[in-house]
Amino acid sequence: MSSQDFTAEVLAWTHWWNTEHRPRALSGRTPLEAWQADPASVMDIPAADLWTFTLEDDGRARKLTSHGVRWRGRTYIAPWMTGQAGRTVTVRYMPHHDHEIDICDARGGYPGPAHPADAANPGQLDALRTARAERARRLCAEVKAAETLRRQRFAPATTAGPDAVRPGSPHRRSSRGRTGRRRAHRRLGSGAAGPHPARRAPGRLAYPALSRHPDHAGPPRSAPARTRSAPARTRSRRPARTGRRPR
To answer: Which of 55, 61, 66, 187 could form a disulfide with 92 if both were Cys (CB 3.0 to 4.6 A apart)?
Structure first.
């Protein structure tokens, strides 16, 4: 049977079932008469959404990446995927047609279709580049706005505020004191005094001993008397051993 003959047979049977067939469950009425007499409200589905009933779903959740979504060993891309990395989606497709797939999110929404990256036409590639360029410009504008707010937030204050520190407060740190200590350390660690204290060998003083204040100085100490040192002892040499050592 050809496709045209099969379609004609199905349409004839459908017409007979709805308008001529009278099953017992409908009390002698045809299905069309029972349908028209039912007062329940009917929701009409738009013709543009009827295609969703012809799609299959593999029941697997996938993650969008910056390259697109993987399905059956191929990567599918779309302009609407720009900036959607990490989003959980499901793939719905028409059997035996892998040139286009439809992406649905976990909530049942329909973000849009996707096409294989290795077979995309120039128009699809241009739309993808345009979407990515627009996102890059938007991110640059957001970064500049954030930098402007940061400069305004940490700008130098000319009036006293609730967070200002008084000049005589112990919590106020002076950069002059830190700079002076660093210069003193450099002076002590340069010239004839030797290398920097932090670079000296272990065991030595990190900083040279400074003289005490005159008010806290103790009584002067007398210099120790010089005595003549004893002559150094000469170490006698033992005679060289000859022969073997007795057992």
So the answer is: 55
Is there a contact between 101 and 72 (Cβ–Cβ < 8 Å)? no
Residue 116 identity (one-letter amino acid): P
Tell me phi and psi for residue 184, to 5 degrees. Answer: -65, -40
pLDDT tens figures, 21-51: 999 888 889 999 999 998 888 888 887 777 7
Residue 129 gets the label, from left (phi > 0), alpha (psi -120 to 50) or beta, of alpha
Closest to 85 measured CA to CA, from 68, 106, 60: 68
The secondary structure of 119-156 as a DSSP string is G--HHHHHHHHHHHHHHHHHHHHHHHHHHHHHHHHTSP
User: Minimum mean pLDDT among 58-72, 147-161, 166-180: which range?
Assistant: 166-180
Candidates 129, 110, 107, 111; CA nearest to 120 is 129
Q: Which residues, other chains included, contact 88 with Cβ-Cβ below 8 Å and sequence gap of 6+?
A: 61, 62, 63, 64, 105, 106
Q: Report the alpha-carbon distance of residue 146 to residue 6 in Å, rounded.
A: 67
Beta strands in the chain (DSSP E): 56-63, 69-71, 74-77, 88-94, 97-105, 112-116
Q: Which residue has tokens 């006293």?
A: 160
Region 109-135: what's the mean pLDDT? 88
Inform me whether the pLDDT recorded for 235 exceeds 80.
no
Tokens standing for 224? 């120790």
* Token pair for 137: 């410009």
How big, in percent rounded to 5, are the helix, strand and coil portions of the chain? 40, 15, 45
Residue 118: predicted pLDDT: 87
